[in-house]
Structures are given as structure tokens and as C-alpha cells.
Amino acid sequence: MKKHNFSAGPCILPAEVMKKASDAVLELDGIGLSLIEISHRSKEFVAIMEKARSLALELLGLEGKGYQALYLQGGASLQFPMLAYNLLENKAGYLNTGTWSSNALKEAKIIGNAVEVASSKDKNFNFIPKGFDIPADLDYLHLTSNNTIFGTQIKDFPSTNVPLVCDMSSDIFSRQLDFSKFDLIYAGAQKNMGPAGTTLVVIKEDLLGKVTRKIPSMLNYQVHIGKDSMFNTPAVFPVYVCMLTLQWLKDMGGIAAIEEINEKKAKLIYSEIDLNPLFQGFAAKEDRSNMNATFTLKDEKLKDTFDAMWKEAGINGLNGHRSVGGYRASMYNALTLESVGVLVDVMSDLERKA
Ligand SMILES: Cc1ncc(COP(=O)(O)O)c(C=O)c1O
């Protein structure tokens, strides 16, 4: 039986995408060859890459608005120094809302003058700082839209004339936003898009070409744009799966349709966390993530019983990150409302038993 997969990433993908992807490993669309044994320069793969790029822009509402979509390698972590290499000339600002933002800032500091504009570190990142000053002379302000580990999510993005750069690794394509507010968006594939191995980078082209430093080709967004995201051999299988997932999302009605389901899932789990006296939420209520719900047991003595119960119910991947402890229910796009219902039932069963 397929488990209810609450893993934080790599994580659940839509079942029909998994089926099509596994078929393509054996034979791609009746061509007598596997997806992973054809040239990335073949007309079949060039069409896949083009579709993956255009679907990303279409779903984000960014087609024809001066943006380019790239599928790069090195994970979201390579974007931390890469974006600074391409954009940081004088000063960059970072909103520090968790481990990933801290890492992004640390890497940018190697490249140039990167400063923290605000932080929630003093409260173990359980909230999103608001109303902080944004220096007008920043080359860009870096944000992390969703903090995978701590379970917080930015609901209102700062309004500023400073270019916005956003790590959307763990909530891209999950909710409607005015994506044209952002000048650069990046996201590792392994949550809402596909397997690990590729990173979507969406860039407003007029942001580029302003730094004076020389940029190695593999780290240069303009080089990748000039080669239609095929400067070197792309991660063909992950890009193919991303294309399938984005097509799946488009067919179901796009981001608006999945957002509605994501909101139902989040409401269901958070109301159980709030009503069940055995549990307590980690993140500040107004900043709670719709993707990663973090919570703890008030009485640690119930841990073994609860762990045995959710495992018995076929649930996978519920353990919290070591920096928060407790539990984390990751509810990415492909996780069904039914799976969240199974978890909520286990939590209320525990209340009855305790
Ligand atoms: C918000 C966020 N940013 C960055 C990363 C790092 O991604 P990668 O492992 O692809 O480098 C993660 C990984 O979970 C993440 O959740």
C-alpha cells in the first residue's frame, strides 16, 4: 500500500506523473529509446526543455513580461552564491528567517557586502519579522518565502523599489502571488516539482549585466539564457518530471486550483493542532506555513505511543527537523486532503486514548 507521504523533501509527487516518468525511462513516447539514453540535443529533449520552461512562466503568469526560466544544477544551495555573483555589486540585504536564509546570507558574504536587514533568530525562527527598514541603496533584497524547517511562510511581501530575490524552494506553485513583484525566483525541484537534481530559476532579464566582476560561465545566468538552459548537459530526467508535474498542475486548473486544496489541508491540520490539548503549534499563528506544519507533543511521554500510531496508519516522514524537534507535516501540492485527514484522525485517536 502506498504510504501517506509527509516527507519534507524529496517528497510526494503526483501518482500519474510517477507513472508517466517511469514509462519514459523505459521508452519515451514510442521512439524506441529511453528518455535517459537520448541526446539532450535531440529534438525530443529540446521540446521537453522548452515546454518545461514555458509552463513555468505560464503558471506564474510571467509570460511576455521579460522573464526567462532556467533549469540549472547544483540545487537551491548553488543559487546562494550564484545569485550574488550575478547581482551583488555594492550591497545586498537579507531577511533572515531560518536555516536556508542564513545559508544564503553566509554565501553572499563571500562574494560581497551582504547585510541582514532583520532576523527572527532570537525566537528560533518561529515568526516572520515585519515592518523592518529596507535600505534604498540595496542591489537586491533576498527573502525565503517559506521556511521548510521552522514552518513559517511570508504572507505579505514587503513593498519596495529594491529588486526582490526570493527562494521559493518549498512553496513555489502552491499559492497565487503577483510573481511579477519578484525579479529573481529560484526553487529546488524536490518539493513541488520533481526529483532532486534541478533548480528552477526565473529571472527578469533586465536585472542582469550590471555587475563589474567576471563571472565563470557555469555561474553566469546570461550564459545559460543565451543557450536556452542547455549550456551544458541538463539533468534530463528531473527536467522531464518537472515538465510533467507542471502539466499536471495546469490541467487541474493551475495555481488557483491547487491553492484551494492547500488551504483546506492547512486548515484541517492547524485546527486539530489548536483544538487537541495534547499538541502545540511551533510557528506564530499569523505566519504559519501552508506547506510545512510544525508541532510538538506537550507531554513527551506520549511520543512512543503517537509514533507507533502514525506509523501503523501508513504515515511516512512526520519527524520534525532536529532544530525544532517534534513533528513536521509537509503538505506539498501532491499530498491529498485525504492523507491529511488520516493524520488528523490519528491525532484525535491519541487524545481519546490518552
Ligand atoms: C527553502 C529552502 N531553500 C534551500 C534549500 C536547499 O536546497 P538544495 O538541497 O536543493 O540545495 C532547501 C532544502 O530543503 C529549502 O527548503
TrEMBL record:
Q: Where does L-glutamate bind?
A: 41
Gene Ontology MF term list: transaminase activity
The Swiss-Prot or TrEMBL record lists the needed cofactor(s) as: pyridoxal 5'-phosphate
Which one Pfam family would you cite for this protein?
Answer: Aminotran_5
Q: How, per the record, is the cofactor bound?
A: Binds 1 pyridoxal phosphate per subunit.
The UniProt record lists the keyword Cytoplasm? yes
Reaction catalysed by this enzyme: 4-(phosphooxy)-L-threonine + 2-oxoglutarate = (R)-3-hydroxy-2-oxo-4-phosphooxybutanoate + L-glutamate; O-phospho-L-serine + 2-oxoglutarate = 3-phosphooxypyruvate + L-glutamate
What residue stretches are annotated with the Aminotransferase class V domain? 5-340
- Pathway field: Cofactor biosynthesis; pyridoxine 5'-phosphate biosynthesis; pyridoxine 5'-phosphate from D-erythrose 4-phosphate: step 3/5; Amino-acid biosynthesis; L-serine biosynthesis; L-serine from 3-phospho-D-glycerate: step 2/3
| Localization per Swiss-Prot or TrEMBL | Cytoplasm
Positions of modified residues (N6-(pyridoxal phosphate)lysine): 191
Keyword annotations from UniProtKB, A to Z = Amino-acid biosynthesis, Aminotransferase, Cytoplasm, Pyridoxal phosphate, Pyridoxine biosynthesis, Serine biosynthesis, Transferase
Subunit and interaction comment: Homodimer.
Q: What does this protein do?
A: Catalyzes the reversible conversion of 3-phosphohydroxypyruvate to phosphoserine and of 3-hydroxy-2-oxo-4-phosphonooxybutanoate to phosphohydroxythreonine.
The record's similarity note reads: Belongs to the class-V pyridoxal-phosphate-dependent aminotransferase family. SerC subfamily.
Protein name as it appears in the record: Phosphoserine aminotransferase
